[in-house]
Each structure stands twice: as C-alpha cells, then as structure tokens.
Amino acid sequence: xxxxxxVRDVEKTFNPGTITENYVLKGINLVLEEGDYxxxxxxxxxxxxxxxxxxxxxxxxxEGHIFIGDKEVTHLPEHKRAVHLGRVFxxxxxxxxxxxxxxxxxxxxxxxxxxxxxxxxxxxxEKAFFKEKLAQLDLGLENxxxxxxxxxxxxxxxxxxxxxxxxxxxxxxxxxxxxxxxDPKTAEKVLQLTDNIVNENKITTIMITxxxxxxINHGNRLIMMNDGRVxxxxxxxEKRNLTVETLLEKFTQSFAExxxxxRLILG
Length: 267
Known about the structure:
The protein is α/β, with parallel strands linked by helices. The chain contains nine helices and ten strands. It has a domain at 5-99 and 169-259: 3-Layer(aba) Sandwich (Rossmann fold), CATH 3.40.50.300. The protein is 33% helix and 22% strand. The strands form two sheets. Strands 6-7-8-3-9-10 form a six-stranded mixed beta sheet, with helices on both faces. The protein has a four-stranded antiparallel beta sheet with strand order 2-1-4-5, covered by helices on one side.
C-alpha cells in the first residue's frame, strides 16, 4: 500500500546568505501510513511548524521531495495542494469567514476543490447534513445554521474549523497547535472532538502540540523534533507505555537544559 505521506530529505533555510540565515529543516525524512495519527512535539525552533508549512506548500523547500499518496507535490503551489489537505491553525479566527453564517462556511468547505457558480444556494439536503454533523459536536450549534460565525466563541469556532477541515475527508489533516489558544476545558473538548473525527474516519493526521501529556494521550504515534531533525519516533505499544517523565527524559537527552522552552508544559 502506498504511504499517505512521504517527506524525503527535505531541507529549508530562511534568509540564506544573510546575517539572519536560519537552517530550519535539516534533511527531514518521514513516512506516514494510511490512518496514522501522529503527534509532534519539540521546543521552539525545532522545525515543527516549518515542517507542516512545507507539506502544505506555504513556501517551497530547498531540497528533497514531498509525496501525498502517490502524487508528488514538492513543486505544487499551496492552492493546488489544498484539495488534498485539511488544516486547523492555532488561532480560532483564521479558519472561518467571520461575516458568513455557519451554513455558508460549511458549504464552502464541503465543495472544496469544486468549480462553483456565483449564487449557488445551499440545499435543504445539505442543511440537514450540516445539522447532523454539528449535532455530533455536542455544542448546541445544530439549530444555529444561520448564525454569523463571528458571533461564536473561540472554542465553537475552532470546533467548526475542525469540522470544515474534515467534512470532505482530506488525504492528510494538519493540526498546528489547534488548541493552544483555548482555555483548558475548551481545549480538552476540542481534542476529544479531534479524536472522534480522526479515529472514526481513519484520517491520516499530524498534530503539533507543546503539551507532553496531550502528545502521549492522543494518536497512535509520537514524533519528537529538535534542531530541524526527527530525534525520537515511537508508536504502538511503546507509545502507549510512555509517561510524561519518560518523555521529559528524552527531551533532556536531546536538548541542553537551557534550550527547554518555557512554553513546554506538562499539562
């Protein structure tokens, strides 16, 4: 079976040849099998978000190759990769159109990659489908299809963004610290929704987090990055047996104590 994602010998340097040159990705190699749910952890500057942005095509890589399924996307622009990807960002305000209704946002997501004429109405069948999906969020939004997204709380918007990213099953779901801006109770709710959606639909997923406990408790595989490289990769029974203490020990093996980020929390 073709892997869901192949990242092969990928390198990325920002501002090359200048005083601010930053060699961020240093020959990254990563293979995800279909249905892998991978949590990625590492200190600030480890290259986590740069890896996700490289996969998404936000900027070109300097060297290496990226495949989504059997399609090489290394040189495809971001908008052409978007048909393969679902993304949820850290900021709940980024993933939705604030001045449009819940139904309009979901409709845009459902028809991602399709050619649409101006003024296409949302059918009653689509509205019923949206209500069903919203009910699964258990946030009381199923009867608020005509509410403007901008009136919702950050947690509600992030839950809808997650639904939008997965309403049409993506080849790959990218979650870039998607609960970091939420309060702990809301973050836990969104993480549970993430698990439900990802596991039920067997969506291949990469989730970046700074929270060790979340990295351990979610997904079937955990990757630690440091200085632009993957330094620890664990899955299956070994991951299930991980503890925060063991993971912290792995960090201290890979990082100087002074390099541990203040944002790295135990949960």
